Amino acid sequence: MAGGIAKRLGALAVAAALSLAVSLPASARTILRDAELERSLRELARPIIAAAGLSPSQIDILVMEDSSLNAFVLDSGTIFIHSGLLLKMERPEMLQGVIAHEVAHIANGHLARRPINAQNARTAAMAGLALSALVASQSPAAAAGLAIGSQSSAQRVFLSHTRAEEASADQSALRYMARAGVSPQGMVDALEIFNGQEALSAARQDPYVLSHPLSRDRLRAARGHAAAQGKGIEGTDAASAYWYARAHAKLSAYMRNPSWTLRRIGKGDSSDPALIARAVANNQARQFQPALAAADQLIAKRPDDAYAHELKAWILMEARQFDASAAAYAQAVNLAPNEPLILAEYGSALLAQDTAASNAKALEVLERSRARDTLNPSVLRDLGLAYSRAGQPGMASVVTAERYALAGRLQDAEVHAKRASGLLPRGSTGWRRAQDIVLAAETQSKRKTRQ
Predict the structure, then answer these.
(1) What is the pTM of this model?
(2) Which of 96, 256, 307, 311 is most exposed, with the fewest beta carbons within 10 Å of its own?
């Protein structure tokens, strides 16, 4: 969903771990993509990341649809948080504590000890989309380790940390939180959730304990450091509380039964989180009029909030009111012109209108989205349709080939890449992109033959 939460499927390749939407084996999990949810997490993480001496713009925090409690770092630029863990956090400081701990693994260089350097794979994928699929073909074991959400031993080895690393990350995280003015007790309270789980069998433990070993000594040390470093830090920052409430309300309403959500929202509650939850829950129940009414209330309160307009646009799209949806998305884009997910949703709405003008606009909007989020297969899918409607079959074939390559389906990608090579001017940008995929497919085929 967009404006609500769109599901993107993780894949059995490095690029898939970087927010992809592809068909994949049952062992993988879905990644939930939503502009408002990701903005909320960015706002919560920004002071923590800055306190660690890192650039907030260089780290993505994504949510995985999984009811188990877990969070992990995939590479130096990607943190994943399970939806179950996010919903379990009772206040913003607890969620910021989880984020701070994962940021500490990045800042302390713990990723360098892993079996492969996933950042190299990320860079390769960004430079040439086909290369990410090639990485998986070169190392099946590495690909298995990157199967998002898989509980296989390979994945646990790839994502796990030593107790020494955990203790180091705890100390750093607590220091970052104090430096950012966030109560370090939030991280201790988050860790308390897992206290005692190591006494359980591995099958009953939450994945977080398997990848983040939690000993009594470690927890005792964390309590001591939090008490020492948290002196003078009291209360919750108003901005953090606001963004946490929005994220929690939206995700909860999307994940849970609509009737459960609606029963828990007071009839007189017109706060932003309540309106968001009411809109999402009613939309999930296919009750579009009350959903739109809640979205309109939010817009009336916050007319300059791009995510409020996006929420309304999503509901209209779900109700198949394509013209109204496109108009609402246009307002959201005007307010947040650089949000790639909103741009992608706007492009989809324009394609749904299916007029000469809307199709031409969709092509322009989708290319803008792709320039800001190069590994979004939904954009590639829509771009293929937009290029086809624009009478550019060569470019349609290129983006289709790239979409298959990101899914690790190099044989299918090669078919479309060769078609594109025959349709595009030799040496053009599109032709070179197609050649990258052909080369990757041929390399994979030769390797398999030798094996």
Answers:
(1) 0.82
(2) 256
